[in-house]
Amino acid sequence: MTTFAKSLDGLKICCIGAGYVGGPTMTILAEHCPQIRVCVVDISQPRIDQWNSDNLPIYEPGLKKIVEEVRGKNLFFSTDVEGEIEKADIIFVAVNTPTKSYGIGAGSASNVKNIELCARTIAKCAKSAKIIVEKSTVPVETASALKRVLLANSNGDVKFQILSNPEFLAEGTAVKDLEDPSRVLIGGDQNEEGLEAIALLVEVYAQWVPRDKILTTNVWSSELSKLVANAYLAQRISSINSISALCEATKADVNEVARAVGTDRRIGSAFLRASVGFGGSCFQKDILNLVYLCESFGLPEVAAYWRGVITMNDYQKERFAKKMVRSMFNSITGKRIAMFGFAFKKDTGDTRETAAAYVSKYLLDERAKIHVCDPKVTAEDMFMEFKYTLNITEDTLPELKSLISINNDPYDAAKGAHAIAIMTEWDEFKDYDYKRIYESMQKPAFIFDGRNILDHKKLIDIGFEVHAIGKTF
Ligand SMILES: NC(=O)c1ccc[n+]([C@@H]2O[C@H](COP(=O)([O-])OP(=O)(O)OC[C@H]3O[C@@H](n4cnc5c(N)ncnc54)[C@H](O)[C@@H]3O)[C@@H](O)[C@H]2O)c1
To answer: Is 226 a catalytic residue?
Structure first.
């Protein structure tokens, strides 16, 4: 029976899943560990082809340059999942774990079918000892389930150790977050072999992360910490958004309140920006997962507490859309609306769970005509998200396409429009010539700033009727 690798020299790492997590994390790892061969594998041939081309499948500031430096040296992208698993000493699993849409736990539990599939493939191909690292965000106790699948499906000669190493990067700042993480978390079994596996992974990260930032725990604490970290971040957004509704009712200004509250050292100022609501593939999914865990363990009060974070987020998106309709004389049928931004946040082209799709849904139900302008989102990405958010089928797609389109010139998108809705906080939106835009619009010309990024006083002076989050004019 072979044992686990002991040194980094000649180590082989395989990462299953070439997405927003697998691609960037392995690129940074390869950059800092030239002695390690890193191969990212995926079942999707188009995705791997893109990673091997000039047109990477995801946009992250600074990523392309580093990929170009290490690709073909010690970083590779391949669809040979089985071959690369066989060669590897350490296998990261970074496949998607979306919320289940059917069966037990539908609408809240995470679907770990991709993870289980990976475990079965690893069991089938492994001929030497493997350390398997859960990079995907998973429910607590997934590591134990993985171990059972591996042991039940391998011939018993191969040793496996499962580690949990959740990823905390944020899209849009992935390179910065990976180069200089707040912490790296590694959970593993607290026995001799588990500690040996943890030590090897610590050594990998220690090539560029200070050792005092590498935290080690048992597996369950590590798995749960990821869900809790995302739940806390989302909770802060929902908390300030709840206060934004009160500010609009009382004439307080949510930015002033956030500043006054955030300067309290015990509270801190991060994640206190009121907005139209959070999006992204993780926050909602991970909170729902936490809710499901609490319910499964007979803790309904705890589950209800965390579900409130999502309820508030849904309320904020709906409140924003309703305010648009109400302000525009309760009728937006046939009215042109320029939507600036569709990505769920700036500096990414990712549209998963974006607030823009939910707000669009309300506006399209009223038969508005939407022209979307986003520096990174393509029409294909947008319609893909609508398929998910609006349950669009091939039959209803033509009607949708007649109501919403992408127009990447903001001046064109706003020409003849009744309103502009700011949905993403892209910096360039602040620099547009709003006087020119105003002159080309229908009057009264409305701006609904869902991210509070524009100079509202200046816009009012130009002649716009401005609506922002958590403040009135
Ligand atoms: N996106 C983020 O910002 C972020 C941050 C931290 C953690 N996470 C977590 O990381 C995980 C991955 O997220 P992502 O955003 O990178 O997902 P993604 O959808 O961008 O990428 C997942 C990839 O896995 C591939 N895949 C699925 N099953 C496979 C299999 N059996 N074999 C080979 N490839 C397979 C898919 O083809 C896809 O390319 C999720 O659990 C997510 O919750 C995401």
So the answer is: yes
Specify whether the CB–CB gap between 467 and 327 falls below 8 A.
Answer: yes
Q: Rounded to an integer, what distance in angstroms lies between the CA atom of residue 385 and that of residue 378?
A: 11
Tracing tokens 């090539």 back to the chain, one arrives at 207
What predicted TM-score, i.e. pTM, was given to this entire model? 0.93
Looking at residue 151, what is its pLDDT?
87
Four-CA torsion 361, 364, 370, 374, nearest 10 degrees:
10
pLDDT digits (tens, 9 = 90+) for 256-281: 999 999 999 999 999 999 999 999 99
Report whether pLDDT(1) > 70.
Answer: no
Structure tokens at 291: 């809710």
Amino acid found at 188: G
Q: In DSSP terms, which residues pair with 77 in a beta bridge?
A: 40
Instruction: Answer for the pair 80, 45: CB distance below 8 angstroms, yes or no.
Output: no
Residues with C-beta less than 6 Å from any ligand 1 atom: 16-22, 42-44, 47, 81, 94-97, 114, 117-118, 136-137, 167, 169, 171, 281-282
Among 137-151, 206-220, 448-462, the least confident range: 137-151
| 154: confidence class by pLDDT, cuts 50, 70, 90 | confident
Q: From the centroid of its chain, how far is CA 321?
A: 23
167 is catalytic: yes
**Residue from 43, 81, 96, 289 whose mutation best tests the ligand 1 pocket (most atoms within 8 A of CB):** 96
Report strand pairing: 214-217 vs 184-187.
parallel
pLDDT at 389 over 80: no
At residue 40, φ and ψ (nearest 5 deg) are: -100, 125
- Are the beta carbons of 52 and 16 closer than 8 angstroms? no
